[in-house]
């Protein structure tokens, strides 16, 4: 067992894992390697190779002074969070290992995990906004995020302005300037690529616009990186301050859990952690453990899904029953030069979620969906299995008709998330489903 090193106040500092090896022979280890051991010391858990699931609501203090010191961290009297484990609404071993590992993918200082993607977003927004503030965001956003900003926070006097996801710096500056004239801008909130348009946000342009409008008084830039992160997009490198995840999707990757995460600089995560401590939106230990298992195969799964999607989209693109395929991997082949430029600067892969526009309307889309034999008819994305759904009739059913048209959410749109199956089996399935459309 590791020896406790008592400090001068007689309290026990957090027992940090011994095997925090980040470098071998001068070589910096990659996340895919570190997912198997980083943040966990078997010696602290009876030699168990894998972390046990710590099912406890509370943790025993070694002495009263240690309890006091830990609470100073929990309550923010000292920055950086608790130095030891206190109570499972605040932290726990599984969550801490998960957060240590999650932060590695974007080379971030710190990470926090949550009970869902939406509870991550809600906790973040509650941390930064106050009545009279004007949130500036890219549009469109995930529907629940739009509801949260527009309808829920709206009830507390928070306003918002948006710019279209693909906007250029001048347009973003204009919107930021208008927002600044209306009230305090607590944060700039982005989502890229936008769902279901797949429009990419130019994070570098947003950062430049922020500098032009706000100078040194910079509101943080937060971005929902669920669709391409953490493998294909690392927006902290382009100037975002906080990267947000629905870990339910690619990070969890098996369609068997719901969770969320935020990664970024400690100074911004500390107040979010305080809010999470207050309202209790942390991940549970069991889900955190499942996510540790998921992260071990994250690069394998995402790489395979990305390769599969490229093959499937190449097949779909030329099919006579297909009108068009909205797939980021096709941006380089001409078309929207501005989007292609953002893709080149921001993305290392096209992901595995795309829009398939069939010739026809709802009848054709439903015939296609009902004929699929491998792909499952379900919403969500980023799992090992391929999913397909009709946004106009499902996720975006309640969106007003004019806005649906503006966003390209037409009746012939099928959203597809490709999994890790055999690519030729998937192509065979899509081929027979297209053939079944009359
Ligand atoms: C799914 C999703 C969310 C919400 O995440 P939950 O884990 O379902 O709460 C937020 N943003 C995007 C882009 C998503 O796809």
Automatic annotation (TrEMBL):
EC number of this enzyme: 4.4.1.11
Q: Name one GO molecular function term.
A: methionine gamma-lyase activity
Which top-level group of life is the source organism from?
Bacteria
State a GO cellular component annotated for this protein: cytoplasm
Q: Which cofactor does it need?
A: pyridoxal 5'-phosphate
Which one Pfam family would you cite for this protein? Cys_Met_Meta_PP
Using the record's annotations, give every residue carrying the modification N6-(pyridoxal phosphate)lysine: 249
Gene3D superfamilies from the entry?
Answer: Aspartate Aminotransferase, domain 1, Type I PLP-dependent aspartate aminotransferase-like (Major domain)
GO BP: any one term? transsulfuration
Keywords recorded for this protein, A-Z? Lyase, Pyridoxal phosphate
Region described as Disordered: spans on this chain = 1-24
The record's section on CDD domains has: CGS_like
Family statement drawn from the similarity comment of this UniProt entry:
Belongs to the trans-sulfuration enzymes family.
* Protein's UniProt name: Methionine gamma-lyase
Q: Which organism is it from?
A: Allosphingosinicella deserti
């Amino acid at each position: 067992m590791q020896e406790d090193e008592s400090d001068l106040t007689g309290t026990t500092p957090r027992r940090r894992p011994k095997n925090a090896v980040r470098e071998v022979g001068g070589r910096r280890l990659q996340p895919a390697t570190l997912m198997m051991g980083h943040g966990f010391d078997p010696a602290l858990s009876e030699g168990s190779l894998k972390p046990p699931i710590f099912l406890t609501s509370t943790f025993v203090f070694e002495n009263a002074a240690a309890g006091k010191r830990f609470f100073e961290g929990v309550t923010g009297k000292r920055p950086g969070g608790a130095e030891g484990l206190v109570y499972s609404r605040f932290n726990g071993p599984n969550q801490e290992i998960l957060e240590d590992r999650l932060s590695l993918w974007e080379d971030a200082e710190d990470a926090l995990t949550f009970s869902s993607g939406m509870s991550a977003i809600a906790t973040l927004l509650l941390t930064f906004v106050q009545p009279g503030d004007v949130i500036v965001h890219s549009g469109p956003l995930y529907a629940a995020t739009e509801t949260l900003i527009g309808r829920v926070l709206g009830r507390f006097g928070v306003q918002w302005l948006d710019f279209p996801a693909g906007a250029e710096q001048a347009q973003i500056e204009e919107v930021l300037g208008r927002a600044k004239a209306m009230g305090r801008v607590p944060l700039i909130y982005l989502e890229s690529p936008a769902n279901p348009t797949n429009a990419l946000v130019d994070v570098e342009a947003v950062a430049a616009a922020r500098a032009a409008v706000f100078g040194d008084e910079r509101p943080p830039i937060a971005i929902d990186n669920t669709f391409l992160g953490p493998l294909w997009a690392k927006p902290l490198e382009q100037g975002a301050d906080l990267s947000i995840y629905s870990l339910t999707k690619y990070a969890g990757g098996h369609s068997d859990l719901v969770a969320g995460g935020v990664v970024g600089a400690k100074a911004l995560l500390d107040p979010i952690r305080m809010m999470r401590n207050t309202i209790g939106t942390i991940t549970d230990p069991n889900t955190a453990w499942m996510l540790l298992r998921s992260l071990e195969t994250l690069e394998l799964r995402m790489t395979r899904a990305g390769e599969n999607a490229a093959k499937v989209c190449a097949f779909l693109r030329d099919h006579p029953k297909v009108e068009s395929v909205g797939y980021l991997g096709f941006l380089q082949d001409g078309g929207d030069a501005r989007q292609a430029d953002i893709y080149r600067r921001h993305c290392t892969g096209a992901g595995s979620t795309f829009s398939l526009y069939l010739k026809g309307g709802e009848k054709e889309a439903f015939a296609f969906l009902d004929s699929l034999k491998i792909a499952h008819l379900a919403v969500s994305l980023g799992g090992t299995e391929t999913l397909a759904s009709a946004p106009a009739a499902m996720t975006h059913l309640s969106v007003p008709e004019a806005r649906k048209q503006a966003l390209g959410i037409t009746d012939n749109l099928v959203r597809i998330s490709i999994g890790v199956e055999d690519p030729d089996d998937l192509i065979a399935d899509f081929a027979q489903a297209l053939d079944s459309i009359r």
